[in-house]
């Protein structure tokens, strides 16, 4: 398949190009587009055939439901049975933005979108290119991250090209995404609002006005595996090619442990990648050292996490030793992604 790559500047949006992309979406084709979280892989969310193509291009398991991206409140009302008061409140504060809400679905939402569930995930993205594209296409756009299933999510167009060139119809290059991690998923379809996936809008942000807010920590089955309420959370995700270990705890201990481990692996002839931070980088001297961001502003770590994992892949390191972060605020989303990327190999020191 021929993949057309077009560049759109979000400060001077070329509506001619948006129109080209919207036409493809309306015709059932697949277009990757920037959002403020990560790049999305877009298809008409009400066209089952188009959505099937989306799952295929990504290699995504069909029981992992998709998020519908919308550009207006009117559009929301056609897709859900009811909009609870708390959803209005969240929308006022966080839409457009990195918050996805789960509602009871209306009849027009196909089950291929929801993985067979009676609920549907909906978000209004903040990126202007994304909003214009949805408006012009005049349909809700299904938009999982525009990466091959399992790989780190794409935060710029070159990541999308790497994973999906030749498999989709168009890629809109709109520069780097801002937040860098996927949206927070908040279930408002039940009695008490529950966070199913941590993201850019934090537990602390929501708790402020949702006193009965809870978080899904997964139910533990008899064989000790964890069953999350959000189907997608059970899959291995965001994984670099190298084996990854994440160190948490007192930062001096973390650095010491990483240096010890790194020396051991280097002696064995392995190529070691170290994911450091601005504050600690000078303490390491061996290995491929990358700075994910600053411990004083963890949003910078969120923004660079997936990109850093992809650079380690390019550098062909055998092993990645990463510094963890505190799990309050945005740290919770960062550690959730690091846990998945490492396959749960978190070492508290
Ligand atoms: P992604 O498209 O990769 O950002 O993933 C979307 C996330 O939203 C996945 O973790 C899905 O499991 C979750 N999700 C989508 N729809 C639902 C739903 N109806 N109920 C629970 N989780 C959902
Ligand atoms: Mg994804």
Percent range for β-strand residues: 15-25%
Instruction: Provide the structure class.
Output: alpha/beta
Oligomer: single chain
Helix content: 25-40%
Number of helical regions: 11
CATH topology group of the largest domain: DHBP synthase
CATH architecture of the largest domain: Alpha-Beta Complex
What's the topology here?
Layout: E1 4-7, H1 15-26, E2 31-33, E3 40-44, H2 48-58, E4 67-69, H3 73-79, H4 85-94, E5 99-104, H5 111-114, E6 119-123, H6 128-137, E7 141-142, H7 157-164, E8 170-173, E9 184-187, E10 194-197, H8 203-207, E11 214-215, E12 219-220, E13 226-227, E14 243-248, H9 251-267, E15 272-277, E16 288-293, H10 298-314, E17 319-323, H11 330-341, E18 346-348
Parallel strand pairs: 1-8, 2-8, 4-6, 5-9, 10-11, 14-17, 14-18, 15-16, 15-17
Antiparallel strand pairs: 2-3, 3-7, 4-7, 5-6, 9-10, 12-13
The protein binds adenosine monophosphate and magnesium ion.
Adenosine monophosphate binds at residues 64-67, 102, 114, 117, 119-121, 144-145, 182, 185, 196-197, 230-233.
Task: Write a concise keyword list for the protein shown above.
2 domains, 349 residues, five-stranded parallel β-sheet, binds magnesium ion, 18 strands, binds adenosine monophosphate, eleven-stranded mixed β-sheet, single chain, 32% helix, Rossmann fold, alpha/beta, DHBP synthase
Structural account:
This protein has 349 residues and is of the alpha/beta class. The protein folds into 2 domains: 4-219, DHBP synthase; 243-348, Rossmann fold (3-Layer(aba) Sandwich). The protein contains 11 helices and 18 strands. The protein has helices spanning 15-26, 48-58, 73-79, 85-94, 111-114, 128-137, 157-164, 203-207, 251-267, 298-314, 330-341, and strands spanning 4-7, 31-33, 40-44, 67-69, 99-104, 119-123, 141-142, 170-173, 184-187, 194-197, 214-215, 219-220, 226-227, 243-248, 272-277, 288-293, 319-323, 346-348. The protein has an 11-stranded mixed β-sheet, with helices on both faces. It has a 5-stranded parallel β-sheet with strand order 16-15-17-14-18, with helices on both faces. Strands 12-13 form a two-stranded antiparallel ribbon. α1 packs across α6 (128-137) and α10 (298-314) runs parallel beside α11. The N and C termini lie far apart (49 Å). Adenosine monophosphate (AMP) binds at residues 64-67, 102, 114, 117, 119-121, 144-145, 182, 185, 196-197, 230-233.
